[in-house]
Amino acid sequence: MKGGSLVRALDDRFGGARFLDRAMRKAFNNHWSFLLGEIALYAFVVVLVTGVFLTFFFKPGMREVVYDGAYVPLRGVTMSEAYASSLEISFEVRGGLLIRQMHHWSTLIFLGGIVVHLLRNFFTGSFRRPRELNWLIGVALFGLVMLNGLFGYSLPDDLLSGAGLRILHGVTVSVPLVGTYLATFLFGGEFPGADIIPRLYSLHVLLIPGLLLVLIPLHAVVLTWRQTHTQFREKGVANHQVSGAPFFPAFIAKTTAYLLLVAGVVALMATVFQVNPIWLYGPYVPSTVSAGSQPDWYMGFLEGALRLMPPWEFTAFGHTVSMSVLIPALAAPALLFAGLAAYPFAERWLTGDRAVHNLLDRPRDVPGRTGLGMAGIVYYGVLWTAGGNDVIAHTFHVSLYATTWTLRIALLLGPVVAFEVTRRLCLALQARDRHQAAYGVETGVIVRGPEGAYTEVTRPMTEEEKGVLTPPAEPRPKFIAR
């Protein structure tokens, strides 16, 4: 069978040519904010490539060995196989330290890209119908990547990551009724156990990456290609139209360059900026905790929640329930992820809006939603700051007690203040837009009249500027619109 006949036969059975033709002509908006999600996507590519390299050399075992490698200060020290192999990757495998740091930096960028992409989608309302499922997948991806980052961060079994495992063990034990059984199963006995590193390794390189490899294409490709691309309002663009460049050749050239740019930035950061120098921490010893221990940024809010929570506990039926661990370790992330997952449906219920939305909102046009978003950012930011309350107190020579109480008050009042301030700013910006539409745009040119008075020259708004300012057509209740 000739090549052309084979292609036609495959097309008759699978319809690939028709799909490919539509895909090549699909329009993508040129606004820069639509590339934020691609930062996460391409960082994930770097994570996968560097992670495969590291699996060739990392030994996920907790059997104790005496180190006799290239790093002289730790020679003769007893440590786990996991930590010894991490040192070997860093100092003896050619390019190992560069790849390990690229893996770490790309993970941090991956999570940062997810957060920025999620915020852009939230503030512009791109989670609305018909994209609720894509939003839920994005929230699930955020949780999975955060969890996998924690597992990978714990694998070297150094003193810093061991402190994180100690917290994980404490949280697991604090679960009422089943906590001790869960901890024994997870760690393989009393802390630190003998099985935790191999089990985290299996989750880190097999289970969670497998889920990501299914969900990321579904989120970024399949559902996106099946739906009309979102875009911001502009003159002459309707709800079911997209103004932009086709996928081929314009967008594919742009996105390929973006992939190379992200990979290059990660490689540059791994070359210039040291991250997670495990050889300085030493192997994990349960009786030792290094001063100023801080987790990676994405876990900082959980650390802060644990530090801000008062020492509350009670005894029921002979069992002590430690609320000082359960509330921050379970309630704080549950509030974050449950709130994100439920919000599209809550807004639809509040507004009664079941229309299809392909045109995005400007944040100022939806003050209630924008205020809630800023309240969430402040909530997360205060917890993240509290994760370093000891460092703040030491650096600025203030009382740790005063720092903790200040952050506790900020956690309660900060989101409320942020919501109201943001809402009022959005209303003020709306008022300015209405004023410009009615009286013209300020030009900055000041003229003096015959009577001596000074006035500013204005110009009428262009049709393009008016198209951007057109408010949403659908009615909204006060909570969302005002």
TrEMBL record:
PANTHER family: CYTOCHROME B. Its EC number is 7.1.1.8. The chain crosses the membrane at residues 39-58, 104-123, 135-155, 167-189, 201-225, 257-280, 325-346, 366-386, 398-419. Residues 6-232 form the Cytochrome b/b6 N-terminal region profile domain. It is an enzyme of class 7 (translocase). This is Cytochrome bc1 complex cytochrome b subunit. Keywords: Membrane, Transmembrane, Transmembrane helix. Its cofactor is heme. Pfam families: Cytochrom_B_N_2. Residues 462-482 are annotated as: Disordered. Coiled coil: none annotated.
